[in-house]
Amino acid sequence: MLLNLQYTKDLSFEVPGAPEIFTTLREQPRIDLALDVQARPLQQGGNVYEVALQIRADAQASGPDGQSQTAFIAELVYCGIFTLNVEQNLVEPLLLVECPRLLFPFARNILADVTRDGGFPPVLLSPIDFVALWQSRRGPEAGQQPVNA
């Protein structure tokens, strides 16, 4: 496995309630995280793949009236281009476990920086168990269908 290139494919940060949110925020917002991993071949029948680590952070805070309001929304798609020279049965676990494991520290830093630069405490993601994520995606049909990677 060779990591050829890594890059930010998409980055979005919005504070829908600005500037009022900064004057009414009394506590650290509650952050809901969503994470997904996608992989696709870059050439038909080849061994070069794009792996995308997709992260979305939705921060909710209590407003002055006690109602929940959106503090910020951050979305990041961080990608890597990987060359795999392995047996076919190893392609899926490499693409959906090992490749995102290599990309994760960089995506984590970008998310922390953008939330901090946006005026909020940095979002520091805990380590992700990509093996468990991969296994949960495979579900009951595990072993029957290869992922279109």
Q: Which features does this protein show?
A:
38% strand, alpha+beta, 4 strands, 4-stranded antiparallel β-sheet, elongated, disordered C terminus, 149 residues, single chain, Bacterial Protein-export protein SecB
Walkthrough of the structure:
With 149 residues, the chain is of the alpha+beta class. The protein has a single domain (2-137), classed as SecB-like (Bacterial Protein-export protein SecB), CATH 3.10.420.10. The protein contains three helices and four strands; from the N terminus they run E-H-E-E-E-H-H. Strands 1-4-3-2 form a four-stranded antiparallel sheet. Helix 2 (88-117) packs across helix 3 (130-138). The radius of gyration is 18 Å and the shape is elongated.
Write the layout of secondary structure elements.
Layout: E1 2-14, H1 20-24, E2 30-41, E3 48-62, E4 68-83, H2 88-117, H3 130-138
Antiparallel strand pairs: 1-4, 2-3, 3-4
Helix pairs in contact: 2-3
Order of helices and strands: EHEEEHH
Mean pLDDT: 88
Text of the CATH class? Alpha Beta
Structural class: alpha+beta
How many beta-strand segments? 4
Q: In the CATH hierarchy, what is the architecture at level 2?
A: Roll
How many domains make up the coordinates?
A: 1
Strand content: 35-45%
Please give the alpha-carbon distance between the first and last residues: 15 Å
Give the biggest beta sheet. 4 strands, antiparallel
Number of helices: 3
Globular, elongated, flat, extended or rod-shaped: what is the shape?
elongated
CATH topology: Bacterial Protein-export protein SecB
Q: Measured on Cα atoms, how large is the radius of gyration? A: 18 Å
GO biological process, one term: protein folding
InterPro entries: SecB (IPR003708), SecB-like_sf (IPR035958)
Subunit structure: Homotetramer, a dimer of dimers. One homotetramer interacts with 1 SecA dimer.
Keywords: Chaperone, Cytoplasm, Protein transport, Translocation, Transport
